[in-house]
Design a protein that fits this description.
mainly alpha; about 55% helix; elongated; binds iron/sulfur cluster
Length: about 230
Amino acid sequence: MKTLTNEQRVSIAEKTLAELKRRYPAPETNLRADTPWQLLFATVLSAQCTDARVNSLTPELFRRWPTPQALADTPPETLEEAIRPTGFYRNKARNLLGAARRLCEAYGGEVPNTLEELLTLPGVARKTANCVLYGAFGINAGLAVDTHVRRISYRLGLTDERTPEAVEQDLMRLFPRSEWGGVNHRMVLFGRDVCRARRPDCENCALAAACPKREPPKDAAPARKTKKE
Ligand code: SF4
């Protein structure tokens, strides 16, 4: 593994941001949600599940539980059955019910708009909190690191770190704060279209000349397995 100098990282980060913005001028999350509560609900469900599957279920889920108050007293088995197709449904139901109750008890039934407050909700770690803050409030408190962001950042040499938290710190130093939410959305799209987990399309990638194309480490901690996410 070749570690890049800070100057090299800065240069690659600038080229990466320019290319991502050129390729995806107006990226948005694929999860459909109209309120902060809906986005939190959908983001929790999206762990280890495709956005398309989550989107196929959420219209009915949002109709049944439009607010944290509506969900808070729901029997766990009822919620489990409703979200079962998203996988890991018992864990997700426990977290969603815990989050709904805490929102009612501590935040007047509203989703708070600070990282510190969001991190007090059961099942909400930095990735989910960052997604909700940017998607629902337009706030760049951090840079959500999922499996695409982690893999692409490593291949490009922007980080040598293994955990999402440490990768996030490296990326926050390399990208302007105003771009953090967009970097996440754009890298997710880029990771599906070009820099795929298997067989990245380096031949047709505009970053090929600058990219060291490093193989991501096999022992890196999976991005989704932090704090009950
Ligand atoms: S050159 Fe290859 S490894 Fe580097 S960003 Fe492009 S697709 Fe990914």
